[in-house]
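Reopening this one. Same input as before:
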Amino acid sequence: MKQNIFVGLMMLVNLMVSAQADSLYPSGYFKLPMDIPAKISGNFGELRPNHFHAGLDFTTSGKEGYPVKASADGYVSRIKISPWGYGKVVYVTHPNGYVTVYAHLQKFSGALATYVSKQQALKESFEVEVFPLPEELVVKQGQTLGLSGNTGSSGGPHLHFEIRDAKTEEAINPQLFGLPVADAVAPTAVGLAVYPLNPQSCVNGKSTVQRFDLVKTAGGYSIAGKDSLVVYGNVGFAIEAFDTETQAHGKNGVFEVILNHNGKAIYQHRMDRIAFEKSRYINCFVDYSTKQSTGKYYMRSWKYPNNELNYVMTPGPEGTLFTSTGKHTLRYLLRDVKGNTTKVDFTVYSKNSPCTSTAAYKPVEQVAVWQQENVFEEPGRFRFVIPAKALYQNEYFTYKTSKSTFGFSVTLGDEKIPAQLPCSLHINAHVPTTWQNKLLVVKTDTKGKVTAVGGTWNTDGVSTTVKELGTYKISIDTIAPKITPMNFDLNGNTQTVLSITEMKFRIGDNLSGIQSYRCEINGKWVLAEYEPKLNQLSVNVSSLNGDLQLKLIVTDKCGNAISYEKSFRR
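Same output, byte for byte:
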């Protein structure tokens, strides 16, 4: 009883603090970064693989090239170009203590473009990361920084926009700053899941998780085809839901989720701030196993022991314990930033007899303990180390090994168990010395897909780090990457390319992946832009004239290299 009173008071305090926090963000200070209707294809806190989405994705209707403008006065404090992640991205620091971020740009503009080109030439690299001094690149609100694009790990043309706290570097929900994004649509509830949390607990007589579809009613949502649930012992609830804005149709994240029990809040989370170093805790915030199996995101309404998300409030890791038998009314409240609210109502009856089936529970002695380092090994075959706090809770853990071409294949636990921190893996092998620097670890998933993990030779095998459980083995990569010209002849004769402004190449590797690339013309470095989504390198030759000799070298992560040379005239 005391715990329930304490939780209720804390939830009330948290709601009051949250309301006050919203008013602290300066409304109207930041402007929209593009002069086109604001349509959101991805919102702040949206659930993504291994992370929470840290900004707003403004859709550009499948097109690139829209001017991207500074949201407020400030200075460019960071620029990064990478084939991965945010692609071409610029960070602007503002005098009010915030930083805005503009990612996946097609290109930079004006003085910013000139500055970037000089940095690339200085480092002789397409990939750069620089931190200009405050006086170097001062910008005004509305000044064009670049054009919208699709660079980096982008799934289509759009602008990714963030607002960060300059001191903590936490990402803050941009919609708390009053950006004019129309939203009169309440969140949509999809499904409810109920989890027995100990060997005696059960839901509707079963000791396994029970999932239910939700249907819309006059007052909100309810469980399809059921008036109530019957439970015993500790259980946990999780909900599948999404949100949309007025002018968008994507399934975005829900800003706030509250679970009430008999009218009192027992759980709440709000997507207002995200610390990047804690974003991977999404894997215990949601039901990771179900996500891996079905792609569906069920948001848990209880905390795992190792969950450091500071915006999740809940009674604790033990889930919900109904201390009295009989009827219990529960309600989920799903809210967006604008306050549009959806209700999900359901009834639970708690009984006083434990569940007799315990088939879902594993022997307690075969457990990896989350608070401590766990070492699993077979001398001469493998060694696997799970560091303390790499797991979110104690997990039943098994392993098995078998011989493979280069050493051993090792199946480590269940790939539906998530990990927060990298775990070290060493697989033994006995191979000729000449092969050792060509070996790497690969992962094979349950569908047979093979993914390169990497690794280095270490005394008697290959060592690497992994963040996923599953099946691993050693493979070898002795094959150099491939280079294929895309928009000019393959013959060895000198070719006139007056009509070509960019020479494009398709590059690819059979296993370990591309490590580096270098392009020279007449013996001097020239910029080659790499787009891994297309396996494409582009070299701008529009400013060159005369007889020219191009040389392109591409190297994979096992040191295999290929060289391509071409004489041409402009």
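So the earlier flakiness isn't reproducible anymore. For the record, The first helix runs from residue 2 to 24.
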